[in-house]
Amino acid sequence: MVAGPSWFFGFDSLMEFIAFVIAIAIANQALKGYRLSKEKTLLYLNISFVLIGAGLLVDGLSSLIVLLEGARRGFLYAFAVGYSIYFVAQLLAYGLLVYAYIYQARSVTSPALLAAVPLLFFERNVVTELILIFLLVYIATQTGINYSINKTTNSMLVFGAFVSLVVAHGFFLIFIVAPIFFPLAHIAQLLGFLLLLAMLLRVNQPA
C-alpha cells in the first residue's frame, strides 16, 4: 500500500478533516446558490462536494484509527477501505462535474459511464491518481475557457481552484520520488477548496 511519509502521518488526517469542513461549506454555499438561482451547475457542485466531504471524512477517520491503534493487519485493511471510499467519492464527484460541463456544451455523452466504478479496494497509486487528474484536467480546461471568455473574478477563482486541484493530485502522484510533495499536495487541495468557497461566497452575497 502506498501511504504518505511516516513523519506526516497524523497531520494528513488533520488536513483531511480541515478539507472536509471546507468541502461541506462549499456544498452548503452551492445549495444556497442553487435555491436562489436554480442554476443546475450549482446543484452538481453541491452533490459533488457532499461526496468529496464524505470521502475525506471516512479517509481521515480510517487514517486516524490506524495512527491510534497501530499498524495491525485489521486496521491497515480499514485504511485501505477508507481510501477506497474516498477514491470512489472523488471519481463520482469529478465525473459528475465533467458531465455537467459536457451537458452545458450540449455534447452527447452517456451518464452510465460515470457509474462504471468497479467495487474494488483501492489504495493511493499511479492509476487512481491518473484517473482523477484526467477528470480534473478536463474540468480545469473548461473553466479556463470560461475565464478566457468572461474575464470575471468568479470565473478566475473557479479556474484557479481546479488548477490547484490538478496540482494537488499531481503532487500525490509524485510524492514517492520526494516525500515533501505529500504535504504540498494537501496544501494545494486546501487552496483549491478555499478558492471555490470564496467564489460561492461572492455569488451568494446580497445584491
| Estimated radius of gyration | 17 Å
Q: What is the N-to-C order of secondary-structure elements (H for helix, E for strand)? A: HHHHHH
Mean of residue pLDDT?
81
- The total tally of domains equals 1
Beta-strand proportion: under 5%
Helix content: over 70%
Spans where pLDDT lies below 50 across 5 or more residues: 107-121
Tell me the structural class: mainly alpha
First-residue to last-residue Cα separation: 50 Å
Write down how many β-strands occur, each being a DSSP E stretch of 2 or more residues: 0
Main beta-sheet strand count, sense and barrel state = none
Q: Shape from CA axes? A: globular
Total of helices: 6
- The oligomeric state is single chain
Folded structure, characterized:
The chain has 207 residues and is mainly alpha-helical. The chain is 77% helix and 0% strand. It has six helices and no strands. The protein is globular and about 50 Å long.
Q: Which features characterize this protein?
A:
mainly alpha; 207 residues; 6 helices
Task: Please provide a brief summary of the model.
The chain has 207 residues and is an all-alpha fold.
How would you summarize the topology of this molecule?
Layout: H1 11-37, H2 40-69, H3 73-104, H4 126-150, H5 153-174, H6 181-203
Helix pairs in contact: 1-2, 1-6, 2-3, 3-4, 4-5, 5-6
